[in-house]
Every structure is written in structure tokens, then in C-alpha cells.
Amino acid sequence: MNRWTADFWRQVLPHDTQTFIVPVNMYRYQDLISPDTSISSGNDTGIPTSPSVYGRVRSWLLQGQCSAPPELYHGLSIHKKVENVRMLDRYNARKPSIGTLYLTATHLIFVDPDGKKETWILHMHIASVEKLPLTTTGSPLQIRCKTFLSVTFVIPKERDCHEVFVTLQQLAQPVHIEDLYCFHYTSSTEDIPKPAGWNFFDLQSEYQRMRVPSDQWSLTLLNKDYELCDTYPRYLYVPSSASTTVLLGSSRFRSKGRLPVLSYLHRNKAAICRCSQPLSGFSARCLEDEQMLNCVLRTNPDNSFMYVVDTRPRINAMANRATGKGYENENFYENIKFHFLGIENIHVMRSSLAKLIETCELKSPSMSNFLGGLESSGWLRHIKSILETSWFIAQAVDEKETSVVVHCSDGWDRTTQVCSLGSLFLDPYYRTIQGFQALIEKDWLAFGHKFSERCGHVAGDPKEVSPVFTQFIDCIWQLTQQFPATFQFNERFLLTLHDHVQSCQFGTFIGNCEKDRIDLRLNERTFSLWGYMANHMNEYINPLYSTLATPDILMPNIAPQNIKFWRGMYCRFESGVHPREPLGDLLLATCDHSSSLEDHIRLLTKRINFLKQQLADCKDNKRNFPAVPIDGTIDNIKGMMLDNKYLYEKCREDGITPGNLVQLKISHASNNGLPGDSTKLSSNAADVLSVDQLAAELGSVALDWKTLRNIRECVCSTPFDHFSRKYHCWKCGEVFCTRCIDKHTPLPGHLSQRAVPVCRPCFREIRHSGSIESP
Amino acid sequence: MEFAELILVPKLDGVIMHWPFQKPVDGTLCITGHHLILSTRKESVEELWLLHHNVDAVERRISGMQGGSLIIKCKDFRIIQLDISNPDKFLKVATTVENLSSLDEPTKLYPFFYRPMFPILEDGWTAFRPETEYSQLVTSQADEWRISYINKDFSVCATYPSAVVVPKSVDDDTIIAAANFREGGRFPVLSYRHDTGSVLMRSSQPMTGPSSKRCKEDERLINSVLGPGKRGYIIDTRTQTLAQTAKSRGGGFEVEMYYPQWRRINKPIDRHQGLLDSLAKLVEACNDTTASTDKWLSRLESSNWMSHIKDTLNCACLVAQCLDQEGASVLVHGSEGLDATLLVTSLAQVILNPDCRTVRGLEALVEREWLQAGYPFPIRHRKSCYSTGRTKAHAPTFLLFLDCVGQIHQQFPCSFEFRTSFLIMLFEHSYCSQFGTFLGTCEAERAGMKLAEQTVSLWSYLNRPDILQSFLNPMYDPNNRVIWPSVAPMSLSLWSELFLRWVVDQTPQQKAWETITSLREKDKELRLKATRLRRQLADLEKEAVEAGILVPASAGAPPTSEAVADA
């Protein structure tokens, strides 16, 4: 019997040692909720996409026009096209997908027509390209991404492989900063104007929020031309009592001129200040610097001492003394308590992450292999040390009402991590979407975390690359796990942020400091990530967030048991290992559904009351109304649209509040999505309430939305993977991918007449019926 | 022996208690026959009511003339410290707690004294009888399966229930012969029949002995479930070596020559003491929150608990795969067919059978595959991870089962009708309870103890709507499919809701579930309200059209609102 051949057994019953490989395999072929598509960054990263592209390429392939290659793929011109490429999947080596590899100016795209797979890799996301030893089937090319995607393509001809290899190496890390993606990224289906987002945040208003300037703290303009310190922001807040001499002297005594300045002022007047290490060597001292710290201490009148936190391990700080740097001597500085807190340096962190990734990429690991690898990578230990240090600072400020001066070596990596986390523990504002972005603007961007060097945006010293920001995002994720209702944003928000810090698609994280960004005129030449994110706000909301449930002071539990491995980040593209029913997205869908129903109920109530009134009047007066105009609705709608426009302008002018951010999208869509709207509405003004209209209203709101479970692909045959959000059409309740749900329109069945997501057929239907109604 | 003789100190003032997440409490200690109570007699402060049966280990820390501290370590992993300043009283309290917690006589246990304060709507003792559980199967597959009462006086197999499901074509004599060939008489019985028609059976090891004896009746019994020309799998939960050495003690495994239609596979799962040691290491590591990350991870790894979960899920997936994908029947056994066997057969059903993911279904599963299958809860759960007197008889196999269900739950959070707190509740009651459900090692013993008459069933308590409500999963959306969990190491995580609940405050997570529940409830209410309003509008519309207020539908117009409302 055929089924009982040795081959069959091997297939069905794996050797015990391969326990991990096999189940994942078997789940794939029977439960294709998340099929092999490991990445489709084109879908959710705002890269210009159109739903028909896949179909276009597919039909083109089917028609056999391969001799005349298309000049464009997704509007991207193709530099190179290699056919019969095999994409290796770690878990499915026996059945690799075969397809065509396209190399465009910005992306590497792999299209597998049979497996309906599209894999998009942004060149900027590529961390390393490696040619593996030649095999019988071709030359393997392994690509590792900064987003933790790892793929291997086997290219039949060595020559092709080499060409792709060389091109990718050049494209992944341009030599000149001006060659980065953001300077070329122009076309956008988003239709956000370029300035959107650049003016959402400014440093001065953030300090105003902390009630600075005040009696104790004032703004100094000494750095307005970046002469005092070129890696600091223009506007610095320093103790009012510190004279110019003190500031200049202190700046000279600090590495890279990074003198102690205010990072966060708590409501109890205790402050977090940041700086770099002093140039103390073995015995040098500087009176101005000592005075400077004393000025900081005196800003908090109730306190007799303050903390100086050196986030480095003691041994590192000691070693720095030999090069003329070092740390504060408690004997020279009055009333300070000095602490070493032991966060390792960027090099340790870099190799720790490398080991972590190695662990994730182990072939069929046992539980012990995995946990052992996790332990020896030290990654969780580092995350814990960052959280611990930050919590130490927050505690000092809150419980002991004591100011803290924080530094590491140059004060732009570890200091940035712990100052921002410390502030986040102390101030609930930083746990909102807007506040979190403001926090990044302040502590990371303004104070000169070297994003371009740490992320390796351009070719440079590989030793400068380090996952400092990744660790920060990981720490935040740890906190979101501990406190599910405390953060306004969800995991997708963190991942999107992390992706775009690396992607260089937006100008926000380009350059190493504020001065760099101004010199590059990024706000004129590139798009801002904040603008893009404002337009996708509904995807980032944590439905469990509640301001009431958010404590003023967030008290983390930093027990080792509570520091967890973030599967969603480091194993993101291993489609088999994630929960099959993502709670967060299901909850978001529930909230959207409720919101649609509420709106619909308001309309129903209004119609019912209206009809009741009319029937009552009719009975009272024995009078017949032939037809009744609808009262006031039209004016409301017009007013609302005006409001939205106004809102958008307002957002651009004076920053934005979280609520506005969400509305921005809505206002935006209703302005652009339905140009014919106003005519339709005004024609309605003369219209009457009819049975037809009621039917149209009821037909436009789906009471039940299709379940998200077991939907493997969108109607456009784009497969859904673990992280691609599935969207409901608010009219028909069907499920679509992000590309197919790009239309927004008000539904007749909603009272508010806000624009909501609908699928294309529904969109056409609504517009069609709109035109019928117009006389 | 009367309780009074054991209780040396019935009441003691000025005892200071330290317990998780609460400030130390200064109160009065009362010791009754079944409970250790600490009360401050203040409204605002919670009282401690601890069943003696929950106490796993008692540790005395004597501090000379100042009395000492009594560390009470519970089977639910909680650790409570009582500071008693009087040295004499301290020793007496310690002895009392030790004595009461090691009472062995089952009829002295609390379930026999407990009187329910609630009306029993449905008697849990009769809710899951094999007759009703298998009634659908036996009627729909009447030509293949039958309920046999051959064991009605528990003479064929002491640990089996009185009613078992066996192939129709096999007569009672064959069964008796097969029972004689299997350890403890645990002959192959039906555990689950999958939609594909393939069946899951379980038994104990065949007594082949060193000379590889055969038993034709046993062969006939299990062959009868295979269709003509079909083949099946025998999953042995032991290593091949272990199975081999069992031969010398009279046990063994099915010899291929005599069972040509069956393919035997070893899928080892650790059992007994190995498991309990593993749990002990895990709990110890979990309780030490001051350790470094490296130490924690290395202890987590060396405890092997997560590996056991992976092995178990792996084995259950394999069984499920055979049944669902290959349509092949499976017989599972280890040596006694009690621990690993039941673990695998019950878990495979959670994967395959949507019913088992409902509250009632899981209760039925526990009843069928654990209680009626003769899993000796009182013996296995006599000692737990803190106890120093651990032996081979003690094992946390049932906890491992619950943990595995929890892991699947985490991957399919919408496919289960219950929340994971339901699993924790089962864990607690399986170790100590006011209900009689987990007393008695098998049906014979339960009948002998007259549990059904003298104690209340856990199911009677649980299956009341007001209690059940708190365990329901607001995200539940019935899923009729087979659910395949991932067993990759990164997909499995420590069940912190259980193992860390006394060291890491779980309140934020519980609050989050409350929010989720209210969001879902609100959505349901809105849905109902919208439907109601639509109906009302349709009625008004009709009235308005008749009154001539409303312009009637134009020709070829879309369906009327009435139609939409009905749809």
C-alpha cells in the first residue's frame, strides 16, 4: 500500500529529535491562517502600494510576456529581475517557494505566483547581506533585516547572485546621507502634505507643560547657534541661579560640552537633569561645574542633597579616568550622593542582540536550547538593568523628592534611555500617544541620540551601531505587558515606530542631533513620521487604555520573572509561532463595531422620534403631510466638515491633542474622499424623507461584522499574516486588507456623517445611490 | 481519633501574619478541625481561612524565647508566615497544624462536613455519567460501539468505571481475557471518536513479560476498531528503553509480529517524581524574585517544566494529527495507563474537539478522562512541590494538563468558552476542596465512600449561572475547527497567572479582563438595541405610509427597511 511506504512514515512521523520542525510544518498546510508570507512591508509601512499590483504582475506572468519585462513594479522601476529564485523557509526546506526576484531602487521584492506570496524588503531595512556557500541548486544569499526578518534566496546563476549582492550592499547603506530613502520618497497614497507632523511638537511647549520657565528654571539662549554644545537642542533649560560663566565653565568640563540641563521637572520640584561625564581624570576639578550642580540642587529648596547617577558599571567609569574623563568626586561636589548603576555600553548591547537573534534563528531548538540561549545572550538582563536604573531615578524624584543628575559617558545613549523612562514612570502624559511622541522628540531627538549612527543609516563605523532605541522600545513593551490599561498605544504602534526609525522613509529620525536635522532641512525636504502615524492613529489605539486606570506614578515590578522575551518583535516574521487569534485586533474591531452601532442607533432614534411626532401631529391636526423635509441635518453636516477643516488647520498651527490626532484622519478623508459630497448633501436639502431613503440608511450599516477568524486572505488574494491588520468594511461588514479598504465615506445610516472605512464596492454603491438621489 | 485531641491550641491572640501583597496582620488565630483561621475582627481587613488539607509543608523557625515563626507552604503555592511570640504556644500550634494537615482518613476531610449554602440546581454527581456522555456515539454508531457493564462490580478492572465503551463486535469474554493481559486490568477502551471516524483508545501496558507473550483476545479487541485493511498507531508514552526494561517486570509493549496492523511509536513524557521535582524547582525559582535574570532563566531552564509542556503538547499533537490528518486510529498507553496516558488522551481532545473547549465540555473531559478513568487524585495530590516527603506516588500530572490547556488557550484566546482562571480554579480544587469531586482514587472507591450522597460535587457548585459567569471568556467565539498549537519554544511561556500569582501582583491583568468583558457586553447590548430600534422604525414606517406621511417606495427601489430589519 502506497500510504505505508517509508516516505509516508517519514512525513507523518518525525524523528523525536525534530520535534519542533514538524508540528510547525504540519500546522502550515492545514491551518493557513498565517501562511508563509513572512513580510509584506508594502502593506503597512506606508510605502506606496496599489491593490492591483499583485494582480497585474500575476496576469502578466500568466500571459507569458516575460520577454518584455514591465518597466514598473508598484510604480517602482525595476533594476534587475531574476527568475526561478527559491526562497528558503527555515521550517519548510523541502518545499521552498519559487518565484521571481525584483530589485528596484528602494525595495527587493520576491513574488511567488503559486504561493500567492509577495515579500517586500526595503533596502534601508537590510542589516546584512551574506553569500553562503554554493549549493547544487544555486547560490544562496542570506539577508538579515533590522526588523528581524531573515530570508535566504537561492539564485540559480552565481553571476546574478553576485550582482544582486553587490547592488544590495550599496543600496542598503548609502555613503551620503542625502541618498537616504526619505529624500526620494515623494509619491504617497496617503495624501498628507509634507509639513504635516513636523510642527506637532516643539520643545518649548513641552517645557511649558512642565511649568518651565519658572522661578528656579530659565531658558538660556547660549546654545542658539549650537556654540555651547552642538549635539544639544537650541533651547536649554538651566537653573536660574546659574550664571553664564558657570554654564560656560561647566560645559567646558563636560565631555562633548554636554553640560547638566533640565530633562524633566516633576510637580514636586524635583528634577531629572542630564549631562555627559565630567573631564575629571584622576583629580581634575572645575569650580564652575561644582557650582552648576549646586545650582541644580538649589532649584529644589526643600532638599539638602541630590543624586548623581552614573548609569555605567563602576569599572567602565574608572577606566575612563585614564583618558581624562571619569565621574564626580563626592569630596569635591557638595551634597551629592553618587551612584553607579551598571548599564553596559553599546558594544555589549550590540553583541547581546546578535546572540539573541542567533537564539531565535536556531534550527529546531529544544526548550533548553532556547532558554539557555536567551540566558547567555544577556538581553533580558540588560533590559532589566535599564528598567531598574530608570525606576531608581523615578523613585528618587517622587518618593524622596530629590533631584537627580544623570550621565553615562557622552550622555546620549544610556542617559537618554533612563531619563525618558524615568519621566514616563513619573508622568502619565508620556503614556499617551501624543505624550510618548513628545518624549521621543525631547529626550531622544532634541538631546542628540545619534540615530543615524546607532541605526547605521549610512555607511560608517559598524562599531557605532547599537540597539539602544530597540532596548527602549522593549522596555516600554515590558511595561505594557505589566500594565495593560496604562498605555494609550498598542504593540503595533511600537513596532511601527521601531520599523521607521530604521527605514529612513521619513525624515524624523535622520541625522544624529537637532543641528544635523536643521542643516539637512529635513522638515522641508522630507515627510514626518508623526504625520504618517497621525493618519493611521486608529490602528495604534489600545482599547483597554483608560485615563482613570492609569496611576500617576507607574510602579514597575522588575522581578526577573516579569521581564519577558518579546516574541512579537524578535520572532515577528516567524509566522508559525504567534497566537492565532490576536486579542488586540479583535478588541479594536469590537470597539469600531460598537462605535458604528452607537452612531446608527442615534440616527434610528432620531428617525423614530421624527415619525412618531409626525404621526401624532397627523392625528391631532387631521392633516396630511404629503412629504416632510428633514430637519437641520444638512446644516449640521456642513458645519461638521468645516469644523474638521478648521481642526486640521489648527493641528498644523498649534500642535495637536490625542483626540485631534484621531480626528485628523477623519477630517482628512472627508475632505478628500468625497468630492461630490457637498453637492449630494445640498441636493438632499430639498429632498424628503422617503421609504427609499430609510431603506438606504438601514442598508448602509452592517449590524454584524464578519468574524476575523479563519480569514486567510483578502478578496484581492493578498494573504494575511500575523501582523497585518484585518479591516472591516463598516457598510457590508466584510473583511479586507489595508490596500482594499482605502476609501472613507460617511454612511447614510450614521447620524454623525463622519467618514468611515468602507470597501470599494460599497464606496461605489454609496456614491452611485447618492447620484440617483440628486435630481 | 477526634479533632479535639489533635487541636492543642484552639485559639491564640496576638499572632502576626505575613501574606502575599498584604500588610502584616495582627490577629487571633483559631484552629478548627478543618480550617486555620486568622482574624482581626475588623471589617476592613481580610480574614485568612485556610483548609488544613491545603498545607503542603510546615517549617518552624524558632527564635529562642521569643517564640518563632511558622512558615506554612500551601499546595496552591502560597506561603504564609505566622509569628508567635510565646515559645510554648508556638510549638503547640506547629504540632497542631502538622497533625491536622497530614490527616489521612478521607472521611475526616472537610467535604464530608461541608454543607452548601446554595441550592443545587443540577447534581454534579450525575451530570457526566458515561451513559449520557457517550449516548450520542452509541446511538449514532450503534453497529460499531456499545456500552459494556462488564465491570459493574469492578472485578474486571478495579480502577475503571462500571460502564465503558467497547467495540460492538467484541464480546465480554474477549474483554475479560484482554483485561487479564493488561496491567491492572486496564484493557483498551474508547476515549474519543473523531469526526473522521478514527478513534482514540487508551489502556495500560500489555503484560508480555520477558518472553513476549501474546494475547489473541487483546489483539482482536484493538484490531476490531480498525476498518478492513486499515492500520493504526500505538503511542507509547515511555522511552523505548523504559518499555524494554518493563518486560523484565512482567510488563512490556505490543510486539510488532502480533500486531501487524499497528505502528508503535515512543513519545516519552516524564512522569511521577521527575515531574514533581521539576515543579518544585520551578516554584522555588518563581518565588525568588530577588535573583538575577541569568539565575532565574537558568533555574527556569533546569527545572525542565517548560520542556515537559513542550513534550506533552508535542505528543498530543502527534496523536491529534494521526486522528485528524491520517484518519488513523490511535491507542495510547504508558505503563499503568494513568498519568502520561490520560494527559495525552485528554489534551488531544482539547485540540480536536470543540466541545472540550466549553465549560461543560472541559468538566466532562475531566470527569471522563481523569476521574472516571481512575486517576488517583488523592494519592497524586497528597503532597506537592513544597513537601519534603515526596515519593513516586505523588505527581502534578493534572497540573501539567491544565498548563498545557493554558498554553493552547494563550494561542487561541477566542476559542475557549472559559478563561484561564477556570483552569486555576480546577487546579486548586483538585488539591484541596470543600467538594467531594476529587476524593477517591477511582469510581469503585468513590462508590464505597458514598461520596455522591455525603458530599457536594464541584460541578454542582460551578454550574450555577452566577458562579459560571465569572469564569466565562468575553472573547469567546465558538470555533469548530481543530486548533493546532505551535510548540516552538518561543510560543510557550511560563503560566505567570498561576505560578507568579503570589509574587507578582496580577490585578492589572484582572482589571484588563474586566474592561474587555464590559467592552464586549456593551457591543452586544448595542447590537440588540439597534435591532429593536430597526423593528420599531419598520412598524412606524408602515404606519406612516398608510397615513400618507411618508412617500412610499419608488419602483425598483432597494428593499424596504422592513426587509432589511428582518435580514
TrEMBL record, chain B:
Single GO MF descriptor: protein phosphatase binding
Alphabetical GO biological process terms: negative regulation of autophagy; phosphatidylinositol dephosphorylation
CDD domains to which the protein is assigned, alphabetical: PH-GRAM_MTMR9, PTP-MTMR9
Keywords: Coiled coil
Alphabetical list of InterPro entries matching this protein: Myotubularin (IPR030564), Myotubularin-like_Pase_dom (IPR010569), PH-GRAM_MTMR6-9 (IPR048994), PH-like_dom_sf (IPR011993), Prot-tyrosine_phosphatase-like (IPR029021)
Family: Belongs to the protein-tyrosine phosphatase family. Non-receptor class myotubularin subfamily.
Protein name: Myotubularin-related protein 9
Species of origin: Cryptotermes secundus
